[in-house]
From TrEMBL:
GO molecular function, one term: DNA ligase (ATP) activity
Domain named DNA ligase D polymerase: residues: 28-286
Database matches in CDD domains: LigD_Pol_like (cd04861)
EC code: 6.5.1.1
The name this protein goes by in its record: Non-homologous end-joining DNA ligase
């Protein structure tokens, strides 16, 4: 195939549709575009008005890739962006906003195969809409032991969040780890939320020192699960829900039910080919993240007054 034009909110030209992006699965750019068409309504709900960083793999997952924040030259005029000053590059970066299906299709045609989101929306970049806990296994072994350890850590985290009466929603990273999200009410800063992530990181390392670590240096983590409380920051991102990942299985970042974590599901069960049917059957398990969040002021005050020794 050479090129075609797909209609969404705006016409999108798509090219090289027979290019293979996930060789092990034989998934072409055409199939990826169809995934985006099928999933765009659900995905836009979570992505809209957030700064988007993408990882592009022009020639597939095993070839050269690059991160892209600034909208590239030649992008359609209708593409929505938001400027943010970068102290590192001393210029404004015009982030793409994935606010509609047309943008999702265009990103797929660009072989933007990983989509990473900011924790806040553009109406107030200093105020996160959620708290995110990133659980990353240090040992990413072929026998899946690393992911199973991350699942055990996530269930311990859920117990602590339940004790704090905080609702929590897990999802796979799509690669090797698990992430747990808590939707929060507006008005809290990243400094506020980091008090909670750091407190729980310290608490869980005391509760399960054989399983969880907050050690930043990978060489000092052993085979433990890294509890990354520093990831929750204005300048950081995490893989967005339902984004594909550049892994041989074509796994996507999959929202889960806690029962599935308990049962021992594995990330490769949730792929470009299986996720649309899963959402059709079970709905969007991450939908609560779009509802008004919970107040965390009392918890922050408690942590300030009861630091862990």
């Amino acid at each position: 195939m050479s090129s075609n034009t797909l209609m969404a909110e705006y016409p999108v030209s798509v090219t090289h549709l027979d290019k293979v992006l996930w060789p092990e699965q034989g998934i072409t750019k055409a199939e990826y575009i169809h995934y985006m068409i099928a999933m765009s309504e659900v995905m836009v709900r979570h992505y809209q008005q957030r700064l988007l960083t993408v990882v592009r793999y022009p020639h597939g997952i095993h070839q050269q890739s690059f991160y892209q924040k600034n909208i590239p030259a030649g992008a359609p005029e209708w593409m929505e962006t938001y400027p943010v000053w970068s102290d590192d590059s001393k210029r404004e970066i015009h982030y793409i906003l994935a606010n509609n299906r047309a943008t999702m299709i265009w990103l797929a045609n660009q072989a933007a195969m990983e989509l990473h989101l900011s924790f806040s929306k553009i109406d107030n970049l200093d105020r996160p809409t959620n708290i995110a806990f990133d659980l990353d296994p240090t040992v990413q072994s072929v026998d899946r032991a690393g992911f199973r350890k991350a699942s055990r850590a996530a269930l311990l985290l859920k117990e602590a969040l339940d004790d704090l009466r905080l609702p929590s929603y897990p999802k796979t990273s799509g690669a090797t780890g698990l992430q747990v999200f808590v939707p929060i009410a507006s008005g809290y800063s990243f400094a506020d939320t980091r008090q909670i992530t750091q407190f729980l990181g310290q608490y869980l390392t005391k509760k399960a020192p054989e399983l969880i670590t907050v050690e930043r240096l990978k060489k000092d983590r052993g085979d433990k699960v890294y509890f990354d409380f520093l990831q929750h920051h204005r300048s950081k991102t995490l893989a967005g829900p339902y984004t594909p990942r550049a892994v041989p299985s074509s796994a996507v970042s999959a929202p889960l039910a806690w029962e599935e974590v308990e049962e021992g599901v594995l990330p490769e069960l949730f792929t470009i080919r299986t996720m649309p049917k899963r959402v059709e059957k079970h709905g969007d398990l991450f939908a609560p993240m779009c509802s008004p969040g919970v107040e965390i002021g009392e918890i922050i005050n408690f942590i300030r007054n009861h630091p862990l020794g």
